[in-house]
Amino acid sequence: LSYWAVIPAAGIGRRMGSEIPKQYLELRGRAIILHTLDRLLAHPSVNGVVVALSRHDGWWEHLEPHYDKPVTRVEGGIERCHSVLNALHELALHADDADWVLVHDAARPCLSHSDLDKLIQTLADDEVGGLLGVPVRDTMKRAEANDRVVDTVERENLWHALTPQMFRLGPLRHALEQAIEAEQLVTDEASAMEHAGYQPRLVEGSAGNIKITRAEDLVLADFYLQQQES
Ligand code: CTP
Ligand code: MG
Q1: Contact 172, 100 (CB under 8 A)
Q2: Which positions does the site annotation Transition state stabilizer cover (predicted)?
Q3: Which of 51, 78, 133, 140 could form a disulfide with 202 if both were Cys (CB 3.0 to 4.6 A apart)?
Q4: Distance from Cα 34 to the centre of ligand 2, integer Å
């Protein structure tokens, strides 16, 4: 039984508003996507990575990453879920349907070894799989379109969904295909699995595993990376 990683990296980073897609911005002297790759490939259980890149990507080839494990490139799709599905189709050419796949955003370079290891260890014998998450700490409000509060949402069992999200190759591929076909909202792998009737398991990770979305996140990410270096 093998473990593979998929990195969706075909986004344009609209909210970041930088000249180049955010995954190619540098933090601590290294492109964000390379930090992300380093972290996944450093785990002894991870056999290799498939990266989904935009067809217009002109940056990847200049990074020339050298790893002793296979890093395969595929073309991304219109939305994140299409990018992930393309990568799963590539994996299916040589991997087993029962193999584990860890899908991790290129824009989350601060994934710690301990969180990754905890996810893998916790789900190793799980029938379904699951994802890293962080319990919600703020009071949550539901509003109408005019920003007026309708009610306060019970925070008790609410989590922020993070990545990696770890599922078996066959079931995940089918779940994503079904969800896309049914025009479901699939913003992560877990939502596709939920739509297919599974109950993914949440594994508590650290809040430092942020997704770099806006410019101010770069400062935070730099801080977390620096903390992990020391
Ligand atoms: N992604 C992808 N294919 C897409 C869209 C997004 O592979 N069609 C990837 C992004 O590159 C990123 C991850 O999915 O690593 C999470 O998406 P997000 O943070 O939304 O990145 P962008 O879509 O690039 O940013 P924005 O939504 O601000 O444009
Ligand atoms: Mg996006």
Answers
A1: no
A2: 15, 22
A3: 133
A4: 19
Q: What is the distance between the terminal CA atoms of the chain, rounded to a whole angstrom?
A: 34
Q: How far is the CA of 10 from the centre of ligand 1 (A)?
A: 6
Q: Which of 116, 81, 80 has the alpha carbon at shortest distance from 208? A: 116
Residues 6+ apart with CB under 8 A from 219: none
Ligand closest in space to the Cα of 162: 1
Q: What is the pLDDT along the chain (230 residues), one digit of tens a residue?
A: 899 999 999 999 999 999 999 999 999 999 999 999 999 999 999 999 999 999 999 999 999 788 999 999 999 999 999 999 999 999 999 999 999 999 999 999 999 999 999 999 999 999 999 999 999 999 999 999 999 999 999 999 999 999 999 999 999 999 999 999 999 999 999 999 999 999 999 999 999 999 999 999 999 999 999 999 87
ipTM, two decimals: 0.99
C-alpha 30 – ligand 1 centre gap (Å):
19
CB 225 within 8 A of CB 27: yes
- 76 close to ligand 1 (CB < 6 Angstrom): yes
